[in-house]
Amino acid sequence: MMADEYVWLICDEVPNAVVLTDPGPYPIEVVKLLHRRTGLSLWHSKSLISRLPATILEDVPREMAEAAVRELLEAGAHAEVRR
Q1: 76 lies in a domain?
Q2: Whole-model pTM?
Q3: What is the DSSP string of 9-77?
C-alpha cells in the first residue's frame, strides 16, 4: 500500500493585481497605456475604463504591479495594487 503524499508549494510572493479606479483627466492617454501594458485592443482598453473599478493586470509580481500603477498615476489615472 502506498502512502499518500502531499506537496505544499511555497511562494515567496503573493500574486498581485492592478486595479484602475479612475481614468483621470486624460482617458485617451490611459487607454493607450492600457493597450501597451496589457496587449488588449484599443477598443477593449476603452471598454475597461467605462466599467470601473477594473482589474487590468492579475497575478503579476509586486514590482510589475507597482510599475504599472506608477505609469497610470503619471498619466493622470488613479490605480492601486491589490493582493
Answers
A1: yes
A2: 0.80
A3: ---SS--EEEEEEE-TT-HHHHHHHHHHHH---HHHHHHHHTSSSEEEEEEE-HHHHHHHHHHHHHTT-
